[in-house]
Amino acid sequence: VEFHASKAVAPDGRTASLWTVRGPDGAWQVVNIATGDDETRYTAQGARALPGGIVFREPQIDAWYVQRGAKVLPLDEDAVRAVGRNGTSLTAYRARVAAAYGDKLPGSAYAGRGAAGGYGTPSPARAEEPPLTTASAAACAGVVLALSLPVVAARRRRRETAG
Prior knowledge:
Layout: E1 4-9, E2 15-22, E3 28-35, H1 38-49, E4 54-58, E5 63-68, E6 71-74, H2 77-83, E7 88-89, H3 90-101, H4 109-112, H5 134-162
Antiparallel strand pairs: 1-2, 2-3, 4-5, 5-6, 6-7
């Protein structure tokens, strides 16, 4: 389960879905507030269609489904267009998704062209930096200068007293 959604209603009637997840400490945290009530509305609709099922969204086509066991049912018209009014089997749904999006996964030619949204072409390998950087060279020069000042001052005093 990616997140749990709760419905919030403003005094003027506007709705929002509060997305919550369990944090590392086990406490629930709000991670998103989405305008509208899609998440809670489709969850309720899915509970009526397949009690105990898992409601999920196919974001590429904005389709909502409910799945329980080997059955996947559509919850909106986008899903009906994808799997038909009576739904499909989980195996057939997986095959449809693999056919529709499998060539766009990380590592695919599609992703290699940088078209996969977030999986751009890899950056060229950075050349290994030499061990002596500008900063370390400046630091060494500063140490040498600081250590040599007393020697220069002592020589100057000797010349002044000898001369």
